């Protein structure tokens, strides 16, 4: 993957921070595969060390924000921990939730061996509370587009919670989708992020355009 390609992914940059619109199937950080990660590609592009502030799943797409300085990293990490950063995702599902909009609350338990999160209705040993709100914002002949606001940031949270209500994300066979996408992506996109700039204290809103893929683009036209 050459340098000019990653420059197309940049959606925001200054001396403190840089954000990319990550394509699906690119790992955010080095993993067992031989594929170059977004972190490594980002460091080649910026010619500097980057600090990972948060993650999105490898098969998903959308905004990933990195810190360029210790101060920016510290300030943004605090905002993430305090849940002061607003994150909005888009997800495509085949089976819509029963309600057009609502809040989902589950207790999630991560299984590291299978790299999967399991939803429970009640707290159990080792679970963490997972909360999100969703709204169906568009429908096509075959699919429904959900806008999702994350209130907590748990491992595979959106994937597990949507599966738990019978609405697994398109392509997400790990969580019950009937078939995978050809490129092993899933139709989950980190769409918008709002945070306070670590130096200027101004409100920043980022938005990542949808992947150039036929189902996503069908919703874009609506």
Describe the structure.
The chain is built from five helices and eleven strands; from the N terminus they run H-E-E-H-E-E-H-E-E-E-E-E-H-E-E-H. It is an alpha+beta fold and 222 residues long. The protein has one domain (3-220): 2-Layer Sandwich (Pseudouridine synthase), CATH 3.30.2350. Strands 1, 2, 3, 4, 5, 6, 7, 8, 9, 10 and 11 form an eleven-stranded mixed beta sheet that branches. The longest helix is centred in the middle third of the chain and has 12 residues, at 70-81. The radius of gyration is 17 Å and the shape is globular.
Helix share, percent: 10-25%
Major sheet description: 11 strands, mixed
Radius of gyration: 17 Å
Question: Distance N terminus to C terminus?
Answer: 33 Å
The tally of strands reads 11
Q: Tell me, what is the CATH class?
A: Alpha Beta
CATH topology tier name: Pseudouridine synthase
Q: What is the fourth-level CATH superfamily? A: Pseudouridine synthase
Secondary-structure-based class equals: alpha+beta
């Amino acid at each position: 993957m050459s340098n000019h390609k990653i420059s197309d992914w940049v959606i925001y940059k200054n001396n403190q921070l840089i954000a990319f619109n990550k394509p699906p199937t690119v790992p955010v950080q080095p993993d067992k595969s031989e594929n170059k990660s977004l972190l490594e590609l980002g460091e080649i592009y910026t010619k500097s060390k980057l600090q990972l502030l948060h993650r999105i799943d490898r098969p998903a797409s959308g905004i990933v924000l990195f810190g360029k300085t210790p101060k920016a990293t510290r300030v943004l990490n605090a905002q993430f921990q305090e849940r002061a950063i607003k994150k909005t995702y888009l997800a495509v599902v085949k089976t819509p939730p029963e309600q057009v909009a609502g809040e989902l609350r589950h207790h999630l338990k991560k299984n590291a061996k299978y790299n999967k999160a399991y939803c429970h209705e009640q707290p159990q040993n080792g679970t963490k509370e997972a909360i999100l709100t969703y709204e169906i914002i568009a429908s096509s002949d075959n699919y429904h587009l959900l806008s999702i606001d994350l209130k907590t940031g748990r491992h595979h949270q959106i994937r597990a919670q949507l599966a738990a209500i019978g609405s697994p994300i398109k392509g997400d066979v790990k969580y019950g989708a009937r078939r995978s996408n050809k490129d092993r992506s899933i139709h989950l996109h980190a769409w918008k992020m709002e945070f306070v700039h670590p130096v200027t204290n101004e409100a920043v809103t980022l938005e990542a355009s949808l992947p150039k893929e036929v189902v996503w683009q069908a919703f874009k036209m609506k």
